[in-house]
Amino acid sequence: MDMFISLSHFCDKHGPRVLLVTQMNFNSSDNDPLLLPDYPLESYCDSCILHFPPVSTKQDIRSMRSVLTHHNHQISFVSTQYSSIRYQLLSSIIRKTFSEETMIYDMTPMIFQDDINKLNFVMGFKLHDENARGNERRYCLTFSIDSTDHLQSMQLLSANIDFIINGFQKMIGYIKQLRDVQLNTLAKQGQLDDNLTPIISTYLRGNKTKSSKNLTCLTNDKGIFVKLHKWNTFLLSSLYKKCHEKYERDE
To answer: What span is annotated as the signal peptide, if there is one (predicted)?
Structure first.
């Protein structure tokens, strides 16, 4: 079963954008097709681009890989922003996610499944940012199963729903906690308005004077995307092992 996890964001300038996607490759090698050393960045602004800590002043990291061994079989878990093998699928998923009228950004889960977008479990959240439209930035963490077997996909999700919810809640809770600490620091320094309540009525009205801010800046954590990669890898590898063990028992 082909699974992947993505973090997406609604950019004020570019609309729905994938920030990071963690995918699996069961034929691990140095020529891993999921690894992308470089890709065009012209269409990204600071709020919708992936920021891994640079290994040097001359080189930016565009993808990150972890290799795990299960039953003498190596599996790659690769995180990047641009997916060369799932670009259209990911674009379709995030467009549907952010256009859904039922999408609530308070960590309430949403599930949708169809022939085009396959099966997706989504948890939305928002972070206060005075430089964003409506004073908030909206994000979605999504677990996806890329399979045409809708019944098997739903069975896998149903069997592991509590594990996925708990995993997403911990990661989002950590991000929101970092943002709260940063807001408190800025407030003490007098760099925030007294009223931190998002202005919902003005969300759809853009403000050209506001600047783009990345998740790294909002959380004051240069390693936030590395942590997302590691957490996604843990979730996907755990789910893979659970599925593999179930298959062996059924055999």
So the answer is: none
Cα 235 to Cα 35: distance, rounded to the nearest angstrom: 20
Planar angle of CA 86, 160, 251, nearest 5 degrees: 90
Q: Which residue has the tokens 């379709």?
A: 92
Delimit the domains of the chain by residue range: 3-250
- Please list the residues that pair with 126 across neighbouring strands: 138
**pLDDT single digits (tens) 197-209:** 443 444 444 445 5
User: Do residues 198 and 136 lie in contact, with contact meaning Cβ atoms separated by under 8 Å?
Assistant: yes
Distance of CA 147 to the CA centre of its chain: 20
> Whole-prediction pTM value?
0.88
> What SS3 state is found at 1?
coil
User: Would you call 67 exposed, middle or buried from its count of C-beta atoms within 10 A (0-12, 13-18, 19+)?
Assistant: middle
CB-facing half-sphere around the CA of 191: CA atoms within 13 A: 9
For residues 96 and 112, is the Cβ–Cβ distance under 8 A?
Answer: yes
